[in-house]
């Protein structure tokens, strides 16, 4: 993990799950991690844990649906470290349901967090990375970004969008500003995503399969692998899923 060491890494959705695991793993390998999420007390606890283990971490309360919050997050990171090497756009929600349930507010929430949140993150760091002529933006999609199933049409649509945005970013920036763009697509993972589900049908399905979810650290290792590759090597996409789930 020599290429991870000393990199300044912003991680959204860092108060639990994949974001928390990624922050801890990268800090263990010498990265300077900047944790961002809405739950400030939880962020402070994770930062303290990282510091007690000898790592370097700071935190910022930020909501990815706020372009202003994301701009402030980038500015604060620059004020502390002077550069931004990696952004991990991890924050996401998944209140899945059938379309005929007409849960329009939940559709809006997924679009705001899963799509606009990714775009706001990119907008916050891209000028700095272009000026540096280096950087790496890692966007969390999902296996649902490759395959649509009943009850997850809107969630899948947001994750298809993440893939499209990531590919567009790669095509626009990799040859000119040397900015890398990577998609990480987790399968069923033991996180808080299921907590946002309000559809009784989908909650029943979630309860049946939640036990075979993989650890968030499995996804964190994939993120670390992508970051650790040398400057001349780009990992475009990684899909990580449970062995037991077809």
UniProtKB/TrEMBL annotation:
Organism: Paenibacillus apii
The family this protein is said to belong to: Belongs to the short-chain dehydrogenases/reductases (SDR) family.
Keyword presence, Acyltransferase: no
Residue ranges occupied by any Ketoreductase domain in the UniProt entry: 7-189
InterPro entries (alphabetical): KR_dom, NAD(P)-bd_dom_sf, Sc_DH/Rdtase_CS, SDR_fam
Gene3D superfamilies reported for this sequence: NAD(P)-binding Rossmann-like Domain
Name of this protein: SDR family oxidoreductase
Source domain of life: Bacteria
Alphabetic keyword roster: Oxidoreductase
Molecular functions (GO terms): oxidoreductase activity, acting on the CH-OH group of donors, NAD or NADP as acceptor
CDD domains attached to this UniProt entry: SDR_c (cd05233)
PANTHER family attached to this UniProt entry: DEHYDROGENASE/REDUCTASE SDR FAMILY MEMBER 11, DEHYDROGENASE_REDUCTASE SDR FAMILY MEMBER 11
Family matches, as Pfam families: adh_short (PF00106)
């Amino acid at each position: 993990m020599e290429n991870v060491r000393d990199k300044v890494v912003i991680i959204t959705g860092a108060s639990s799950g994949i974001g928390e695991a990624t922050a801890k793993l990268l800090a263990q390998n010498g990265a300077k991690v900047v944790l961002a999420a809405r739950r400030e007390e939880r962020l402070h606890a994770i930062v303290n844990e990282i510091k007690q283990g000898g790592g370097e971490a700071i935190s910022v309360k930020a909501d990815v649906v706020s372009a202003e919050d994301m701009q402030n997050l980038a500015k604060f990171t620059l004020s502390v470290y002077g550069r931004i090497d990696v952004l991990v756009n991890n924050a996401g929600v998944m209140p899945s349901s059938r379309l005929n349930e007409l849960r329009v507010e939940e559709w809006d929430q997924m679009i705001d967090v899963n799509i606009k949140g990714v775009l706001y993150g990119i907008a916050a760091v891209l000028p700095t990375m272009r000026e540096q002529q280096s950087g790496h933006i890692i966007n969390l999609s999902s296996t649902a970004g490759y395959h649509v199933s009943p009850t997850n049409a809107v969630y899948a649509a947001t994750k298809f969008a993440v893939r499209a945005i990531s590919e567009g970013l790669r095509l626009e920036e990799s040859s000119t500003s040397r900015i890398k763009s990577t998609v990480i697509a987790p399968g069923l993972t033991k996180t808080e995503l299921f907590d946002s589900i309000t559809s009784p049908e989908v909650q029943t399905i979630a309860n049946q399969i939640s036990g075979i979810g993989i650890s968030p650290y499995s996804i964190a290792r994939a993120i670390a692998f992508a970051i650790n590759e040398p400057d001349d090597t780009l990992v475009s996409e990684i899909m990580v899923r449970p062995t037991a789930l077809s």
